[in-house]
Write a structure and sequence with these properties.
Number of helices: 5
Strand content: 25-35%
Helix content: 25-40%
CATH topology of one domain: Aminopeptidase
CATH superfamily of one domain: Gcn5-related N-acetyltransferase (GNAT)
Shape: globular
Number of strands: 7
Structural class: alpha+beta
CATH class of one domain: Alpha Beta
Radius of gyration: 14 Å
Amino acid sequence: MKIIDGTQRLPELKELIVEYTDSLHMDLSFQNLSDELAHLEQRYVPPYGRIYAAVADDGAVIGCIAYHRHDDRRCEMKRLYVKPAYRHLHAGRMLVEKIVNQACADGYKEMVLDSFTDTMKSAIHTYERFGFTEIPAYYHNPMPNVIYLKKDL
């Protein structure tokens, strides 16, 4: 398995993000998800952000992660997802490491994210392993059990 720049695999990453958001069984329309999916390049391709894919040895896209720019100082991690059958490969950790390192190299000073405390405990544990700590809300998320995290880069 390897982590690659996802800009050449956007259609496959779109499918993966749909799989991820469907797995949440939540209405994410408040995040303008349909617009995001229709225009991934306007959110996750430089200069607006970055997107990466985890690719299995057979070439299948098995995971993704992205960030998008808030301002010159801050970016937001988005859409960390690994297909359940591949989670034993620790692709999630590799994706987080890649996106954090890239955001730092791109000159950002902090990375923020939000997650769900009830359904994403494993992801939150991974974020904490990378030094993310809880912060007050940086935007309004109407969903229950939301946690906001930040890492200084």
